[in-house]
Design brief:
Helix content is 36%, strand content 20%. It contains ten helices and twelve strands.
Length: 372
């Protein structure tokens, strides 16, 4: 399916203006645009601006609440439990991370639980916020909506794509950023494949009868038909990690697990997140860490390459490469673009104001400047 190029700065302005029109305070609108456009720049279109239509529907259904803030429920200094009050995940999570980073500066470490946030998007963004402050961060996240990932050995969805993320600042080098869904692929990537009429990698989806398929359409069946399910990555291991995300990321901090009574919303995706932020300097081994890391990476990257391999990368390298390639313009597929135009029209109908269709910002592709 055709890709449409939107200039990065104009895309950021469009997302900001859309949320301002819907009623977001300026900071919330900017943080939302920073995050969503940032996910496209990192190459994770599944968690980029293509989420706007779902967020708009969630807001119109009075599920997503604008202008809410992270509310402190429990505070014992180095341990915090916060409630996102069903607010915009991009804003309440930024606030929650700011607080956790400040506490880690004070105490060396902070264990922070954030519950009842609307979709908090690409979790790597939050690890990057910690890394920019010189902190290591570890994130266990559960997501609550219609369950779509089958447990290992099952053939019907029981939870979502619960991401796990670690950010590590490395002296004198780019940080390491591990950030993935515990499903074989993220649901957003199934949506992107569905919108762009392509297939998903084999071994990642089951149809409604429990047989493997590469057809993303099984996750978007006609009304009244049973959906298929995603499978966890790495079989029982991914399933076990997804389970830990439910327990630490949600149940332990007073958040909702993905059980039917907690998943009655029409459009919202709620997230709960347990984050451990700590100051690596306080381990007293920063110098050794930097040199040991470099020596280890050199050893790892000295492995002879498999046939056709582009090289041995580090977690975080693919996102950095895509960020460079997309600095000027972001490609958006036709299906997603149409949904975004409709989202702007819906805001216009509800509030009498909107930035207009995103498609009018499209620019002609220059040969060689689109990487996909
Ligand atoms: P993915 O499968 O693309 O994996 C990304 C991770 O793998 C990154 O850390 C990347 O640097 C690393 N990586 C990729 N190729 C590599 C290579 N060749 N060598 C070394 N490392 C490599 O990601 P995903 O599972 O599709 O998840 C995409 C995004 O979706 C993530 O940002 C995640 O936070 C987000 N997500 C969010 C939710 C939510 O509820 N908010 C749910 C699921 C996923």
């Amino acid at each position: 399916m055709a890709q449409h190029l939107i200039p990065t700065s104009a895309l950021h302005r469009w997302v900001t203006d859309l949320w301002l029109a819907a009623g977001s305070e300026h900071r919330e609108a900017i943080l939302t645009a920073d995050h969503l456009v940032g996910a496209n720049l990192a190459g994770h279109d599944s968690h980029g601006v293509g989420m706007v239509p779902r967020y708009v529907n969630s807001w119109l259904a009075d599920e997503l609440q604008l202008n809410r803030h992270a509310h402190v429920m429990q505070d014992s200094g180095s341990m915090l439990t916060l409630d996102g009050q069903r607010g915009m995940g991009q804003a309440v999570t930024h606030e929650a991370m700011e607080l956790a980073i400040a506490r880690a500066r004070e105490h060396g470490v902070c264990v922070m639980g954030l519950r009842h946030s609307h979709h908090l998007g690409r979790v790597g963004h939050w690890a990057e916020q910690a890394v920019a402050a010189g902190m290591v961060s570890v994130h266990f996240v559960n997501a609550v909506s219609k369950p779509i990932v089958a447990p290992h050995g099952g053939k019907q969805g029981r939870f979502l794509t619960n991401p796990f993320t670690v950010g590590i600042p490395v002296p004198g080098r780019e940080p390491v950023l591990l950030d993935f869904a515990t499903s074989a692929i993220a649901l957003g990537k199934v949506r992107v494949a569905y919108n762009s009429k392509s297939r998903v990698p084999p071994g990642s989806l089951l149809d409604h009868e429990g047989s493997f398929t590469d057809d993303p359409g099984v996750m978007f069946p006609p009304p009244g038909s049973a959906p298929g399910a995603l499978v966890p990555f790495a079989g029982h291991k991914g399933y076990a990690l997804a389970m830990v995300c439910e327990l630490l990321g949600a149940a332990l901090i007073g958040g909702d697990t993905t059980r039917p009574p907690n998943a009655q919303m029409k459009h919202a995706i709620w997230n709960n997140m347990l984050t451990i932020v700590f100051d690596p300097q306080r381990m007293g081994a920063t110098e050794v860490f930097g040199s040991e890391f470099s020596a280890f990476v050199e050893w790892v990257q000295s492995a002879p390459l498999q046939e056709g391999s582009p090289g041995v990368l580090l977690p975080g390298d693919p996102e950095r490469a895509t960020r460079k390639a997309r600095a000027q313009a972001v490609p958006i597929d036709s299906g997603t673009l149409a949904q975004m135009d409709e989202a702007a029209a819906a805001v216009e109908r509800a509030k009498g104001n909107s930035p207009g269709p995103l498609s009018r910002l499209e620019i002609a592709a220059h040969r060689g400047n689109m990487e996909r």
